[in-house]
């Protein structure tokens, strides 16, 4: 089991001091324990995706450290990281005519040599992961013909086929209807893999995350359990909206009702 540690991450797209503060990370630190589901929440433009990109070895921080267990991620090869970290992004890849099972099989690439074909174990894993995301029978469908929600589940299946030690999800429920939002997050939770996810819907974050980090203008401004973090004062300060916070009547986690003027 593997933990993730981001320590004092500073990053901006144009180097130090050359960008608007909204798009600069400043001394951002967080950790994900082995098997823990951690949510990253904050308004649009607050730095959620930028911080995730530093974590999966896409955007190199100007300062600070990203560690997977005891290893500095930025001192390892991209292949080393791909064998251990799987990523589900908001955007869909160009599939260039690939079928669903071919897209999912790409998750096995980091574990194979350059000229290795798919083994029996690889093919079994592809079938297994597609079944786990509710897409059994879709193997031969062209990826490009799928709905947004179906594509999102295929990309999750590809990530699971990597057999990662850490899962990073960037707004994983964006393209999904309520049923599949809940099913995807339940599935991720059941995996008991360390997971860091940016989540737009705060009620979903409250329901599924063990802990939350709140990011605003590139800084982590709060962290803790959903009950610790999701209070009316913080939501007003960070999101600029008043909210009523009570307990979910069945499960006891915080429930947020935004207060809007008619």
Automatic annotation (TrEMBL):
**Top-rank taxon:** Bacteria
Q: Name one GO molecular function term.
A: ATP hydrolysis activity
State the UniProt keywords alphabetically. Answer: ATP-binding, Nucleotide-binding, Transport
Looking up Pfam families in the UniProt record yields: ABC_tran
Q: Which PROSITE patterns match?
A: ABC_TRANSPORTER_1, ABC_TRANSPORTER_2
Coiled-coil features, chain-numbered ranges: none
Mind telling me which InterPro entries this protein's record contains?
AAA+_ATPase, ABC_transporter-like_ATP-bd, ABC_transporter-like_CS, P-loop_NTPase
Family designation: Belongs to the ABC transporter superfamily.
Q: What is this protein called?
A: Iron complex transport system ATP-binding protein
Q: In which organism is this protein found?
A: Pseudomonas moorei
The organism's lineage is:
Bacteria, Pseudomonadati, Pseudomonadota, Gammaproteobacteria, Pseudomonadales
